[in-house]
Amino acid sequence: MSKVFTIAEGLENLGALRTGGQGSVYKGRRTGSIYTAVKLIPTPVTVENEEDKNYRNFRSEVAKLEKVNADPSPHVVKMLSWGITESGSFPYIEMEYIDGPDLCDLLQPPNDGIFTLKELLKVALQVSAALAHCHRAGVKHGDIKSNNIKYNRHTGNYVLLDFGLAMMSEEQRRSSVRHAGAIEFMAPEQLDGKMLFQTDIYSFGIMLYELFTGTVPFPLSGNSDTGRNAVMLNHLETAVPDALAVRRANLPQAWSAEKQAREMQAPAWFLSLLDVCLAKSPDNRYKNAMELQDVVINGSLSSADGYTAALHNENESLRAQLEESRQAKLNETMKLAGLQAIAAKAGIIYNEQHGRFEQSRRIMQTTRPVFMTVLALALGSVAFLLYSFFAKPDPMPVSAAFPVGIKSNKPYYSPYIFIKSYNYDSVFNANRKVAAKKPVSLKRDQLPKKDSGKKKKRKRFLGVF
């Protein structure tokens, strides 16, 4: 990029970054590869001594900025050098180059049209810290707005830039506000060229309102004098539109219903802070940025306490749900073990691989009637066999074939089970013949009794045998 003019020896001009009513900012490069930002003040200096009013005002404000940078803040841009350009004799201030978008750029697509409460709180904390750092040094910024705050993409911090109005006289400020300044962020007293600590507080409130709702409370239509005068009059007389209602109307449609509901839960301290910052009278605002910072810190801590309590309650709820789930799983395991024991008796096994009960292949299944029939037959067979083994025969009656006093020794044998392999009939007949040949002497009590004619009934097993 070609040089437009020479800034200073060893400081190369790489072209304009942006221009404004209080001056233009150029991208510079020191000898080597160090990039910086150079702010040019549009008031040429004729003589570099105290006799020149512009030079005197410039030196006075540079001294204030040197006080700000004496104790550097990560949220305030650092001043590296200052001087008068070699051509044009314009005062300039060389600052560190912040690589990243302005706040106003973060409200444009593809970003969401408004900030989340979490990011908004971060901006409030860091910008209030930057303002408090300046006010402690006695420096009023005078031009707080969303495009004078940059997001440093390397550090993640928001950095306050551009102390242009702080280095202007009251007459220059009045002219700048009416013709070139960002009228949407101007406090009512600035319309008369006044700049107070409370002026920065008002502009800070406008900036937060824009991030919270997606728009400034009094937008400028065009850049005509009529439009600017209308905005000035609104700052002086018109009440600020309700921030919550404007935020609800501008919520991104891409957000889920749950996120939209959560993002509408703005803390009460934040809404109260907006009301105090945007008061029409400076006396009704915070006195300075130190007081503002205390309110933001205390409010953020109270929000953190509420957030911590909410997290604690959520953790307790999750822990209770986890314990309930474990207990339910334990009960299910116990029930499954009981079912497995019952199923095992019925020949059903649990297949853990497939997670289901299956029929065991080692057990044959049949219907109940068939099973009862088979069981009855089996029991009948066992009973018959036992009877065949243990049943006793009736004694043989004494007859002519058997002499008196000779008992039959014929053994009983089952018609189905043969205990001996020889013929019992042959043995019985042989014994009977031997007994017939022997003389028998009978005693009185051995004499055969007269048959009474009644035959003794033999007990039968199951009425059959």
TrEMBL record:
Species, as recorded: Hufsiella ginkgonis
Ranges that cross the membrane: 370-390
Domain of life: Bacteria
Keywords for this protein: ATP-binding, Kinase, Membrane, Nucleotide-binding, Transferase, Transmembrane, Transmembrane helix
Record PANTHER family: MITOGEN-ACTIVATED PROTEIN KINASE KINASE KINASE 20-RELATED (PTHR43289), SERINE_THREONINE-PROTEIN KINASE NEKL-3 (PTHR43289:SF6)
Basic residues bias (residue ranges): 452-465
Protein name in UniProt: Protein kinase
CDD domains: STKc_PknB_like
SMART domains: S_TKc
InterPro entries: Kinase-like_dom_sf, Prot_kinase_dom
Residue ranges occupied by any Protein kinase domain in the UniProt entry: 11-297
Pfam family for this entry, one: Pkinase
An example Gene Ontology molecular-function term: ATP binding
Coiled coil (UniProt feature): none
Ranges of compositional bias, category Basic and acidic residues: 442-451
Disordered as annotated region, ranges: 439-465
